[in-house]
Amino acid sequence: MTAPRQDPLRDPRFFADPYPTYDRLREGCPVQRIPTGSGGHQAYLITGHPEAREAFTDPRLSKDTARFFAGRPSNRDLHPAISRNMLASDPPAHTRQRRVATPLFTTRRVRVLRPYITRVVDDLMTAWRPGTEVDLVADLAVPLPVTVVCELLGVPESDRDALAGWSHDLFDATDNGRIDAASHRIGDYLTQLVDTARATPGDGPLQCLLRDCDEGGLGRDQTVSLAALLLVAGHETTTHFIGNAVLALLRHPQALDRLRRDPDLIPGALDELLRYDSPVSVATFRHSTEDLSIGGVDIPAGFPVLIAPGAANRDPAAFPAPHRLDLDRDAGGHLSFGHGIHRCPGAPLARAEAEIALRTLLTRFPDIRLAIPAESLTWRRTRLTRGLATLPLTL
Fold first, then answer.
1. What is the full DSSP assignment across 321-378?
2. How far apart are alpha carbons 395 and 380 in whole angstroms?
3. What pLDDT, in 10s, does the model give residues 50-96?
4. Residue 322 CB: number of other CB atoms within 10 A?
């Protein structure tokens, strides 16, 4: 096995299409040491499906970023609500926050939300007309999940565009200063929102969440960090889920026509759409707390470990002909929502939003097509998530 000399996840070609890079790395070894960034740092990257599932459940891979970076020099300045949230913690701290977050997204709770989601989609498409051009990202995929999660948190409508912009900046992999600044804007805003809600008696969405947090033993800082996680993770990945799914269907006309003719097949197609082009390309930070072995590869203690669901979902060992979109495939084993104790608790809500968006789009506008050549599309320059900057469509 020959490790790459430069960070393969920062190549401009990777952002446009990561799958050739993932294939090449997996074929070399599904667990290998790679350079990360430009400062001489290294990490272990996991691209194989069985190895990724194993890593997701190994308790020796910690998500406690504060523990890893303690005493290490750093020029980063993330707001604590972002740097110390549920995704960046281990049990028991993680368990306490997850116990509060999970009931927000049960199948029953999401079923109650479906009429509201449908109204939001209807409102967003009100001005759309056949034959005209829209940007599916800006006009649907961004505002839909932002509106829904802000409704859950009780965020005033006047503040939602600003929060969406800050969340977008948080995932901008090219500018650490911009990322740090966005984290403080989000953290400061949500701190004020939580404090105001706590001082205002009532039964609004945020007051209800605060009562759940109090009953779950979460303090003020943990409550703010949970709200930040719900906001950011609750809409950024769903935005890319919707955009990637629509593009995948446009690139596979037979699959598109099949769902257009029978929209009731859409719920069953979601797993394959998630597998085919995962909105989460590389999972959030983990590090080894002791020497361990994954997939027969020894990983020393104290190393960052990157699990790539985008790569694992295209592993031919798990999914034959992985680069083909196959709506008849059993893709339930995809890792786009993670696996184990950190599996995304908001998955039922993301699926509902994507299903309703796709159903409405294909029903109302059966003749949708790309407004520009596919090779001219621009992808976000971040290795964590995979999503389009814009998706111009002719309705």
1. STTS--TTS--TT--TT--GGGS-TTHHHHHHHHHHHHHHHHHH-TT-EESS-GGG--
2. 24
3. 999 999 999 999 999 888 887 676 677 778 787 778 888 899 988 98
4. 21
Cis status of the peptide bond prior to 263, with omega within 30 of 0: no
For residue 340, give both structure tokens: 């184990």
β-bridge pairing 41-46 and 304-307: parallel
Which residues, 6 or more positions from 285, have their beta carbon under 8 angstroms from its beta carbon? Answer: 63, 65, 68, 88, 304, 306
Is the Cβ–Cβ distance between 269 and 261 less than 8 Å? Answer: no
Phi and psi (nearest 5°) for 44? Answer: -100, 130
Most confident of 38-52, 201-215, 216-230, 283-297: 283-297
Element (H, E) at 210: helix 205-215
Task: For tokens 């205002």, name the residue.
Answer: 200
- H/E stretch holding 394: strand 392-394
Identify the burial level of 86 via C-beta atoms within 10 angstroms of its C-beta, where 0-12 means exposed, 13-18 middle and 19 or more buried: buried
**How would you classify residue 338: left for phi > 0, otherwise alpha for psi between -120 and 50, otherwise beta?**
left
- 117 sits in which H/E element: helix 107-125
The alpha carbon dihedral of 273, 276, 281, 285 has a sign of positive
